[in-house]
Amino acid sequence: MPISFTLQYEDSVTSARAGLLHTPHGEVATPVFMPVGTCASVKTVSPRELKELGAAIVLSNTYHLYLRPGHEVVREAGPGGLHDFMGWDGPILTDSGGFQVFSLADLRKVTEEGVEFRSHIDGSRHLFTPEKVMEIEMALGADIAMCFDECSPYPAEYAQVAQADGRTHRWAARCRATHGHPYQSLFGIVQGGVYKELRQKSAQELMALDFPGYGIGGLSVGEPKDMMYEILDLLHPVLPAHKPRYLMGVGSPDCLVEGVARGVDMFDCVLPTRIARNGTVLIPEGKLVIRNAEYARDWRPIQQGCGCYACRNFSRAYIRHLLKAGEVLGIRLTTIHNLYYLCHLMADIRQAIVEGRFSEFRREFGRIRGERREDRG
User: Is 265 tagged catalytic?
Assistant: First the structure.
């Protein structure tokens, strides 16, 4: 098996767990947050900086890389495929493009064969089938590839979600039959919306195909967080304990802590880079909009005690100035801070699990965020 997973520690009170994900490009300590490099680049941040801020594995997007530069171009970059193309020698996960196709809405048509869609770039027509997606992901050559799936919207009627789930399972079987990369592992994706019966059925059907890991898709698409947590609680005893679980598209700090408490090992989200471009940074109390006028003469770092490059070298006032002046360095610094914050939050969570104090960590995390979110530096 190209990857393997070692479960090392389990919390005695919650379902939190710590492990090691072994990949052809190195080990990843879990639980882990994966920065998103949609087009083979985490926006504004170099691979060297990603390593310096604590990133262990990154995610790239099959849909976007297929449209440009094209998966054949990436294949030609070298034997490492995407690793050589983007200059990242650590582990990579590629999604299948299923969510991106789902989000196109008016530009797509779903059939049993696959999804016909029009490019958001030039309007050209394309067809993603499970076989085509496997061809693309194998050319990209990431350590982990995801099956092609159909993500149901929220809200959606039971019959609509059930139909999408059936198609997701059949597509997963086709992906499994087609995939044959020598060092790439293929994960299945559990769907089912917010319907517990469908979630359990989806998990059981995918487990019968014996994937080395399982994504949990179709959450964080508009449903209340409590509903998401209920689904995670349901799936924890169902999914195999000796294989990694990946909650797709979730990355707010509170959801990371609560997801870990429910047995999730891997997360990804564009949130830290997206809000950074809008001048918003993550701090233990929540968020700080550093573009605001109140920080024009604030000489403190973004977060006292933070070890990221931005906090070690620059003030809130300076970073605000850069953002207001349209200087790219401002976005780079807010992005570096946000990614550092999430990567180190996950490292702290893991350490708490290892030391048997995750429940205490979780309570303290909630207490800090629950207090009045005034700027205390």
Answer: no
Catalytic one among 95, 143, 149, 265? 95
Output Rg (C-alpha) for the chain, integer angstroms.
20
Catalytic annotation on 254? no
C-alpha closest to that of 249 among 34, 29, 15 = 34
Q: Is 144 helix (H, G, I), strand (E, B) or coil?
A: strand
Please pick, among 149, 165, 265, 268, the residue that the annotation labels catalytic.
Answer: 268
Half-sphere exposure of 199 (CA within 13 A, CB side): 22
Report the sign of the C-alpha dihedral through residues 355, 356, 362, 363, in that order.
negative
Examine the pLDDT at 316 and tell me if it is beyond 70.
yes
Q: What is the DSSP letter of 60?
A: E
Tokens matching residue 161? 């979600």
Q: Give the pLDDT band (50/70/90) at residue 373.
A: very low
What type of residue sits at position 303?
A: Q
Rounded to whole angstroms, how far apart are CA atoms 143 and 32?
Answer: 15
Kindly report the average pLDDT of the chain as a whole number: 95
